[in-house]
Each structure stands twice: as C-alpha cells, then as structure tokens.
Amino acid sequence: MGIISRGFRGKRRGGDERLPPGQYLVEDFPVLSAGPTPRIPPERWEFAIDTEAERTHRWSWEEFLALPRQTPTVDIHCVTKWSKLDTTWEGVSLDVLFEDVDTAAEHALVYSYGGYTTNLPLEDLLDGKAWIVHRFGGEDLEPRHGGPARLIVPHLYFWKSAKWVRGIRLMDEDYPGFWETAGYHNYGDPWREQRYEGD
C-alpha cells in the first residue's frame, strides 16, 4: 500500500494531555492530498445534503454565507502523526444545516469536488461536533487547505475532515470512503490510535 504515508517528524510534546498517543506537534500546517487540488470558484460552489429518502437540501455560496456562523478553536490530528493545537476556523455548524433535514439514517458519506469521499456515523457530525468552514486563522480558506470550504470533524483523524466538500449523502448502511477503502480505519479515533484497518 504505497499510498499510505507513515508520517512526519515534528516536535513532540511529552506529557501534553491534548496530544493523542503517537502524535507530534507542528507549528506549520502540512498539506497532504491524494491528487490534484480542485479549484472551485465560489460562484460555482454548492453544498447539498441528500437524504436516504432521495430528498436534497441545497445551498449556494451566497446562501451558505448567509447562515449563522461560528468560530471554533480546535485541535486537529492527522493520521500521519502530526497534530496542530488551537486552530481557529469560521463556518457553519452541521447542526444548522441539518435543522430542516428529516432523516432516520445513521450513516453519512461525505463527498467532495475532485471525487474524494469519507464515511462517518451521522452522530459524529451533530451536537456541536462538526462544521463546514470557509475561513482559517482569520483568512479565506486556501484551496490547498480545502477552500473554498471544507468539513472539520476535530475529534477524529483529519482525513475525516474532507477538503473541498460538496455534500453529504445520508444512508441506512455504512459504506467506506476513499482512504477507508485503501486500508485506513473505518472510524479514526486519534485517542485510540485507530489509524489503519485492524487498529
């Protein structure tokens, strides 16, 4: 499995209770992508939630920016062993986007411009656990970091925080996404070191 990188070396923070096991602290923001960086003009961007009953809720860029926004400050942890603490984003909570979504589904498949997908239990996207963000550190989100908008699910390894997010498909059954199919763990809890299948 040549596409799986075992990680960067950075500054280790021994004894830091915010640093999951096996992680190293970085001050910069490493960029890891499986392919070329999609460049989506905001006027062509849209976000959709597709329910298991085949109902679609859709937002244009202007509609998305008109929604109530939050500025979460969170720690992020990459499966390649780097962690970055106190990252500040701006965006819309998934709780806001799901306000009018009627669903009994328990599983979600997040899909992105460029074809990337990742799967999560729906409960990991709600109750203040996840956001669609369009700004990082007070600046518009750069394409290399997932701009114009990306998903942030900080309590899971960062590959679950899909860049260039385009939508969420709600499902009755769980289906693995891009990295999960390539051997990464299906869930990805950094505190349990769920990096790869079998961890």
From TrEMBL:
Transmembrane segments: none annotated. It holds the Pfam family Oxidored_molyb. Residues 35-179 form the Oxidoreductase molybdopterin-binding domain. Residues 1-21 are annotated as: Disordered. InterPro entries: OxRdtase_Mopterin-bd_dom, OxRdtase_Mopterin-bd_sf. It comes from the Bacteria. This is Sulfite oxidase-like oxidoreductase. It comes from Nonomuraea cypriaca.
